[in-house]
Automatic annotation (TrEMBL):
Residue numbers binding phosphate: 12, 52-53, 184
Gene3D superfamilies the record matches: Nucleoside phosphorylase domain
Oligomeric and partner information: Homohexamer. Dimer of a homotrimer.
Enzyme Commission code(s) on record: 2.4.2.1
Protein's name in the database: Purine nucleoside phosphorylase
UniProt key word rRNA-binding: no
Organism: Limnochorda pilosa
Span of the signal peptide: none
Alphabetical keyword list: Glycosyltransferase, Purine salvage, Transferase
Pathway where this protein functions: Purine metabolism; purine nucleoside salvage
Coiled coil region boundaries: none
NCBIfam families, per database record: MTAP, PRK07823.1
Length: 265
């Protein structure tokens, strides 16, 4: 089995990242991952890339086998997982084209397989700070260098989909002060943490969800609009990832890998 140290999940509109790849199908005890994993060298580092919806975008958010995807990364030796995604903004100051480096999530999904620990070993990991504190500042630096307007922290509310929100739902999320809405962050982030891997989210804002209060010209989100804005920013996101990969320290200085040690009663 080939090895990698950094894993990247491509989201909507982001199906390929690496050149000169070696492709592998990774078998997991949880079934098949979304696609073959592509491995290649980037800035002298071994990187694994997996499009979370499959490269032909055949898997809606609620049908993704998140456990198989994360297990495959772990199997390849990955210790850091980067999860870029398309996302909606819930607050006026977070604009389409911006990048949010999330630091919290709220889960509003249901029925998804969201743990590796189903007994007989009982495990409760802390989710207080799910996003890696070492990777977040590095991502913000790299984002600034390639010209993204980047936000340091933000709460992403993860909804089940595949439909977008009603106005009432979106209003509720806005009133909570949450910044970002998405359909795939949960359980991706928490499964990475259960396996002791660092997780970083880069939420590329493509729209204002149902629109913007007082701005009737801002139309509710459509899938076409998500893809359009994502394509516009694709090159910049690739550039950001390349710079980020180069500056990730080889040794981990965070506690993400120790989550499991204190998790068992
Ligand atoms: Zn970490």
């Amino acid at each position: 089995m080939p090895q990698a140290e950094i894993g990247i999940f491509g989201g909507s509109g982001f199906y390929r990242f690496l050149e000169n790849v070696e492709e592998v199908w990774v078998e997991t005890p949880y079934g098949a991952p979304s696609d073959k994993v592509s491995l290649a060298e980037v800035e002298g580092r071994r990187v694994a890339f997996l499009p979370r919806h499959g490269r032909d975008h055949r898997l809606p958010p609620h049908r993704i086998n998140y456990r198989a995807n994360l297990w495959a990364m772990k199997e390849l030796g990955v210790t850091r997982v980067i999860g870029p995604c398309a996302a909606g903004s819930l607050q006026p100051h977070v604009r389409p084209g911006d990048l949010v480096v999330s630091d919290q999530f709220v889960n509003r999904t249901w029925g998804r397989e969201d743990t590796f620990y189903e007994g007989p070993i009982v495990t409760h990991i802390s989710a207080a700070d799910p996003y890696c504190p070492e990777l977040r500042p590095l991502a913000l630096e790299a984002a600034g260098q390639v010209g993204f307007r980047a936000h340091d922290g933000g709460t992403v509310v993860v909804v089940q989909g595949p439909r977008f929100s009603t106005r009432a739902e979106s209003k509720e999320f806005q009133a909570q002060g949450w910044e970002v809405i998405n359909m795939t962050q949960y359980p991706e982030v928490i499964l990475a943490r259960e396996l002791g891997m660092c997780y970083l989210n880069l939420a590329l804002i493509t729209d204002y969800d149902v629109g913007l209060e007082g701005h009737p010209e801002v139309r509710p989100v459509s899938h076409q609009e998500v893809m359009r804005v994502f394509q516009e920013n694709n090159d910049r996101l690739r550039e950001l990832l390349q710079r980020l990969v180069a500056r990730i320290p080889r040794e981990r200085g965070c506690a993400c890998g120790q989550a499991l040690e204190s998790a068992r009663p």
